C-alpha cells in the first residue's frame, strides 16, 4: 500500500469516527499530560530530499513547490498526539499557482521601482534616497503580509482526526503592527525587540483555531527582557566600533581604489575591529538561548480549550543542530577550495606562461561552480540535519496538560484559502 493511499484511508477513518461520535453524543473528557511524538528518520528524509533535488534540477526549479510539499507532508505525517497522526493536505499545485499570481504583481512593481530609481538618480541624491527608502518600506511591509498569509495557508492544510486548523485576522493589520513595532524597536536601539516579538505572537495566537475551538495567549514581557539583554549587549558592542570606523572612512577613496586615505586598521582601529568580531560572536551565540526562551515563554502563555502548553526546550537543544550543520559546511567548503586550488596550481605549473592564463580562467569558473555546489548541498542537508532534529526536540520537550475532549471537536467553518503562499515564495521568507 503506498503512502498516499494509506494517508487517504486514515483521513477518511478519522472523519467518519469524529462525525459518528458527534452525532451520537459521545464525548469523553481526558485528563491529559502528554507530549507529541515524532518518529521521522534521517534516512527516509534523505531519500525524499535527494529526489526533490534531482526533480527540481531537471525542471529548472519548477518542482520546488512540490518538493516543499513533500517535505512538509513527511514531517507532519510522522508527528502524532494521543495516538493519532497529523495530516498535511496542501499540494504543490496550490503553491505554484499562488506563486504565479503574486509574481504577476511583483514583477511590474519591481520594474516600476527600478525605473523610478533611475529617474531619481539623475534628479538628485535626496530624491534617490527617498525612492530607495520607499522601496524598502514596501517590501518590508509585504514581508509581514507574506508571513501571516503563509501561516494561514499551512494551518488550513494541517489536520488531526480529520479536523483542520485555521487562522482568522487580517494580514494587512498584522503587517501594520509589524511595521509599528519595528519602528519602536529601531527607536529604542533594539531594546524593544522582545516586545515586538511578543505582541506579534499574541496577535497570531489569539486568532488561531483548531476545529471549532480557539487558542488564547496571555504572556507578559518580563521573562524575555532579561534573556534578550545579553544578545542586545553583543549587538551594541559590535555596532559602536563599526559606527566609529565608518566615521573615518573616506568613501571617495573606496570608490576610486586609492588606498592612501583608507583608515589604518592597527592600534585603536584594530581594537575596534576585534570588538566588532567579539560583539557579533556574542550576539549570534546568545541568539540560540534567546530563541529557546521565546519558545518556552510562548508555550507557557498559550492555552487551547482547557489545555495548557509547557516547553523545556534549552539553548543547547537549538544550538547543536546548527553547530554540526555549520561545521559540516565549513569542512565541505574547505575541501572544495582545496581541490580547486590543487587543480589550478597543477594547470599553472604544467603550462608555463600560457598555463597561468588557463589557471586564472579555470579558477574563475571553478569558484562559481564551488559556490553552486556548496549552496545546493547546504540546502539538501539542512532539512535532514537541522529541521529533522529540531522538530523531534520540539515535540519531545513540549507538554500539553489539562482536560481535553477531542471527540467534541467539530470541523472548522472558516473559509479555506484556495491558493498557496505565493507571496512568501516570491519573497523567499518561508524556510519550511
Describe this structure in words.
With 432 residues, the protein is α+β, with helices and mostly antiparallel strands. The protein is globular, with a radius of gyration of 26 Å. A hairpin with a 2-residue loop joins strand 5 and strand 6. It is built from 12 helices and 11 strands. It has an 11-stranded antiparallel sheet with strand order 1-11-10-9-8-7-6-5-4-3-2. Helix 5 packs across helix 6 (171-187), helix 6 runs antiparallel to helix 7 and helix 10 (268-300) runs parallel beside helix 11.
- The first-to-last residue Cα distance is 28 Å
Percent of residues in beta strands: 5-15%
Count the helices. How many? 12
Average of per-residue pLDDT values: 81
Give the helices and strands, then pairings:
Layout: H1 3-24, E1 30-34, E2 37-38, H2 42-58, H3 64-77, E3 79-81, E4 84-88, H4 92-123, H5 125-156, E5 158-160, E6 163-167, H6 171-187, H7 193-206, E7 208-210, E8 213-217, H8 222-248, H9 251-256, H10 268-300, E9 302-304, E10 306-311, H11 315-397, E11 398-404, H12 422-427
Antiparallel strand pairs: 1-11, 2-3, 3-4, 4-5, 5-6, 6-7, 7-8, 8-9, 9-10, 10-11
Helix pairs in contact: 2-3, 2-11, 3-4, 4-5, 5-6, 6-7, 8-10, 10-11
